[in-house]
Design brief:
Order of helices and strands: HHHEEEEHHEEEEEHEEHEEEEHHEEEHH
Largest sheet: 9 strands, mixed
CATH topology of the largest domain: Heat Shock Protein 90
Structural class: alpha+beta
Number of helices: 11
Length: 405
């Protein structure tokens, strides 16, 4: 018999509300977020966090637009300023954001870029490679800023427009004539969203120096008006300079200079840059990047690099009889002893694991990096026999000393 005493009435589970009307759950209960409201409600999905990391990602997102202009051949200078009130101003000498009205709304391309989420490449951009963290561009920064001002120097005039929390509050306005070109974006992160709105000069400075290494010929400056502390980075030798900075101090190179090479495929959809330097100090360090963003969890490009490096070293050592036919292959771990390396790939269609691009998953990156490293490193070893012999001896000595070969 049931607790109710009625044998024909089944017992109800203790937590069930028998009075619920299922018809009360309908389309009115489904909340649809319009425009950039989704970004403001879930900022961590777009910039990684609402802490300092997310705050700095806002800056990187704006700077990445300017880097894209450099990669497209239209900009060579980026000036970043932390303003006295804690905002960020990014100035580039690229083409300037497009001004044309687009679509049925009649909005300018500037306003669409700053207010519309787009998960595909912009038709007007002309970029073969695009950076950025979320892949959603400047509109995310606009949505998460209490104020944002855009200035475009293009078509013989200076144009300006102002926004508040992602919404335009002034029309795109034509100002005085100018022969200059480029874009300036000034934004103040929204204190109602971020746990802190105070950017770290040291963190930004390190990232901008990294960008200068990764994008040879690009000059990036950072000025802090709280008080002023200007720095400027410009590295003519790109990744070779980067490897030199990452190598142990005091310097203890097994060979000199660093081995560096780059290659781009025929259709321009992937470019690979590599620099390597073996040192007597152990261990080494490997840093990888995809579209100028650090891939801290590695991925396909790192896997391709390690596979090619191990194969090339073993093949060369056997051809030069530094390994006998009876010796086992040198392991990947042994090859990496004392190695400082930087790998940078730039792809037209990168695929990442995670919203903030920590691991690259493109299989073509693995294959192309393997091919480039195999060809170029083999050629370098063949043309530099003395340095090559030193590298193999260093690897064999390190491996023997650690019992790893």
């Amino acid at each position: 018999m049931t607790e109710s005493g009625n044998p024909s009435e089944p017992a109800q589970p203790a937590n069930v509300n028998v009075n619920v009307n299922v018809n009360e759950y309908n389309s009115s209960h489904i909340q649809v977020l319009q425009g950039l409201e989704a970004v403001r409600r879930r900022p961590g999905m777009y910039v990684g966090s609402t802490g300092e990391r997310g705050l700095h990602n806002m800056v990187y997102e704006v700077v990445s637009y300017a880097v894209d202009e450099h990669l497209a051949g239209h900009a060579d200078v980026i000036d970043v300023t932390i303003t006295a009130e804690g905002g960020i101003r990014v100035v580039d000498n690229g083409r300037g954001l497009p001004l044309d009205a687009e679509g049925p709304s009649g909005k300018s391309a500037v306003e669409r870029e700053l207010t519309e989420l787009s998960f595909g490449p912009r038709a007007h951009s002309g970029y073969g490679v695009c950076g950025g963290l979320s892949g959603l561009g400047l509109c995310v920064v606009n949505a998460l800023s209490s104020r944002l001002t855009v200035e475009v120097r293009r078509e013989g005039h200076r144009w300006t427009q102002e926004y508040e929390k992602g919404t335009a509050v002034t029309p795109l306005t034509r100002n005085e004539e100018t022969s200059e070109h480029g874009t300036t974006i000034t934004f103040l992160p929204d204190a109602d969203i971020f746990e802190t709105t105070r950017c770290s000069f040291a963190t930004l400075s390190e990232r901008f120096q990294e960008l200068a290494y990764l994008n040879r010929g690009l000059a990036v400056s950072l000025t802090d008006e709280r008080p002023e502390r200007p720095v400027r980075y410009h590295h003519v030798d790109g990744l070779q300079d980067y490897v030199a900075r990452l190598s142990p101090y005091p310097a203890s190179p097994v060979h000199s200079p660093a081995v560096a090479f780059e290659s781009e495929n025929e259709d321009g959809t992937i470019c690979v840059q590599v620099a390597v330097q073996w040192n007597t100090w152990l261990p080494g360090e490997l840093r990888s990047f995809a579209n100028s963003t650090r891939t801290r969890e590695g991925g396909a490009h790192e896997e391709g690099f390690r596979a090619a490096l191990t194969s090339v070293v073993n093949e060369y050592a056997r051809r030069q009889r530094q390994l006998s036919p009876d010796d086992e292959d040198i392991t990947a771990g042994a090859v990496s002893e004392g190695l400082t390396a930087v790998i940078s790939v730039k792809l037209a269609h990168p695929v990442f694991g995670g919203a903030t691009r920590t691991r690259l998953t493109n299989p073509e990156a693995n294959a192309y990096v393997q091919d480039v490293v195999s060809r170029h490193l083999t050629d370098w070893l063949d043309h530099n026999p003395n340095e090559a012999a030193s590298i193999i001896r260093h690897i064999l000595n390190a491996a023997t000393g650690r019992g790893r070969w």
